[in-house]
UniProtKB/TrEMBL annotation:
Main subcellular location: membrane
Organism: Streptomyces chartreusis NRRL 3882
Region (Disordered): 465-484
The keyword Transmembrane helix belongs to this UniProt entry's keyword annotation: yes
A GO molecular function held by the record: phosphorelay sensor kinase activity
Protein name, per record: histidine kinase
Reaction equation(s) it catalyzes: ATP + protein L-histidine = ADP + protein N-phospho-L-histidine
Domain HAMP: 184-236
Length: 514
């Protein structure tokens, strides 16, 4: 907006200055040209009078001497002829026999004075010819031709134009300064307001926008500050309610768990079914609290990334992280009778942290293992597609219907067929918030003949070097020399070959899906 306002103001200033400067330059040049014409016309009148006197007296010596003296003083040539075109005086190298001079002489003898009409410019350097008849009334006794130099007049015009343009430049600079100041005065409050709106939209508490600028903007900023305080207070209360409720319920749930566990050995066999139901509900409540806290953390992080931007050094190899997490989840998959494997994919650098991507993989793999069923196969893959680094978890389980796919990802939504499976229905919502915070998205699609594919699109890390955990360019100690675009820590394994303890195991994952 600042550029558009500044462009409009400067365009108006340029048009105003041009409308003032161009006529002034033209007027200055015309005035100096007129001065030259008037001065040389006076000289021609004087020579015409002398020519007429010489014709009456028959003595041309005074006329020749005057013409010679004029040429010596001013350097301008003069040609004077009588009524029969006979040369009387020729000075400065100009001759009556010259074709151009001859045409001027003919016009003057026909009693037609000749004076240039074009306006001089600073770059004009050609001499100008003037012609004037001698005699009185209709009786022409001779003709006078004068070749006038325009150097002095052109120099005067150059000086005057320079002063005018200098003044115009100073005024233009003053206009630019004033336009910048005015634009800044108007636009700065809008920039502060725009940032505050972004913070509010991201769910972050916006700073109080400083009131300034025109009265209309001041009123708008004041109203926004009041609205932001109200909205921020409501959002903060809602966030605190979720966080405090989740946190405060942990202690009584833990105490309840201990007491229920202590009762397990003392209950009669007839109460075992009730005891199992109570412990299952306790586990469900614990998972729900964990997922609520994970979702609140993901939303907070997404808001911060939206407002503050993303750091260029936050990047990781999606293929390496996926392979590492699959190794951790394989015992769980084997226990459930599910085949879990990861494609041996090339490096796919994603613009996110390894911790965030590990949480995404954990949620998606946990979902696939729970819902695909025994005997199914789950494949984890990571690849680059244009500007995206794509993480895909695909299974060949029963899948979902089109109606169910439309609701997949909604908070707390679970298919009616999976009501008996542990979960809270928040896992995919957590993944969606993590991806959205990084500028990515989540995509679901059915697999033929049956199954489900979940794809997470994350921005691809900018082309260039890959950041390691420390200085140096040595290759990984396990996989040997890296590609040309890879920089790894000297003597340190890459993410594909680091020990599995770099992230919590499946039994420690906080963001489980429902």
């Amino acid at each position: 907006m600042r550029a558009r306002v500044l462009t409009a103001l400067l365009a108006f200033a340029v048009l105003a200055l041009a409308g003032f400067t161009v006529p002034l330059l033209t007027l200055t040049a015309s005035e100096r040209t007129q001065q030259l014409t008037v001065a040389r016309s006076g000289t021609l009148d004087r020579f015409a009078t002398l020519t007429d006197q010489a014709e009456r007296t028959g003595d041309t010596r005074a006329l020749v001497a005057e013409a010679t003296r004029y040429t010596q003083l001013y350097g301008e040539a003069v040609v004077i002829v009588d009524a029969h075109r006979a040369p009387v005086a020729q000075t400065g190298g100009m001759r009556a026999s010259d074709p151009v001079v001859g045409r001027l002489v003919d016009a003057a003898l026909r009693n037609q004075p000749v004076s240039p009409t074009s306006t001089l410019r600073p770059w004009n350097r050609d001499d100008r010819l003037f012609a004037r008849p001698a005699g009185s009334g209709t009786r022409v006794t001779g003709a006078v031709v004068l070749r006038a130099s325009v150097d002095a007049a052109a120099h005067d015009i150059s000086v005057r134009w320079g002063l005018i343009l200098l003044g115009t430049g100073l005024v233009a600079v003053a206009c630019v300064v004033l336009a910048l100041a005015a634009t800044r005065w108007v636009v700065r409050p809008l920039h502060r307001l725009d940032r505050a709106v972004g913070e509010l939209a991201a769910g972050l508490p916006p700073r109080q926008t400083q009131v300034g600028g025109p009265p209309e903007l001041r009123k708008l900023v004041t109203g926004f500050n009041r609205m932001a305080d109200t909205v921020t207070a409501a959002l903060d209360q809602q966030r605190r309610l979720v966080a405090d409720t989740s946190h405060q319920l942990r202690n009584p749930l833990t105490a309840l768990r201990l007491r229920v566990d202590s009762l397990g050995s003392r209950l009669p066999p007839s109460a075992s079914r009730t005891y199992s139901g109570v412990t299952s509900e306790l586990e469900r409540m614990e998972r729900l609290l964990d997922d609520l806290l994970a979702l609140a953390t993901a939303e907070q992080r997404a808001g911060e990334l939206t407002v503050n931007g993303r750091r260029r050094d936050e990047r990781c190899d999606a293929a390496a992280v996926a392979s590492d997490r699959v190794q951790l989840w394989r015992p769980v998959a084997d226990q459930g009778g599910v085949s879990l494997r990861a494609h041996d994919s090339p490096i796919a650098m994603a613009a996110c942290t390894e911790t965030e991507l590990a949480q995404v993989v954990d949620v998606l793999v946990d979902n696939a293992l729970k819902y695909a069923g025994p005997g199914s196969e789950v494949v984890v893959d990571a690849a680059c597609e244009g500007p995206w680094a794509v993480l895909e978890v695909q299974d060949n389980g029963p899948g979902l219907t089109k109606e169910e796919l439309a609701h997949l990802g909604d908070r707390f939504w679970r298919s009616g067929r999976h009501r008996t499976v542990r979960g809270s229905g928040l896992g995919l919502a957590i993944v969606e918030r993590i991806a959205a915070g990084r500028g990515g998205r989540l995509d679901f699609r059915a697999v033929s003949p049956h199954g489900l594919s979940v794809r997470v699109f994350l921005p691809r890390a900018p082309a260039g070097t890959r950041l390691g955990d420390g200085p140096g360019n040595a290759p990984c100690t396990s996989c040997g020399p890296p590609p040309e675009d890879t920089r790894l820590t000297a003597g340190v394994p890459c993410a594909r070959h680091r020990p599995s303890v770099m992230f919590p195991g499946p039994d420690q994952v906080g963001g489980r899906v429902g």
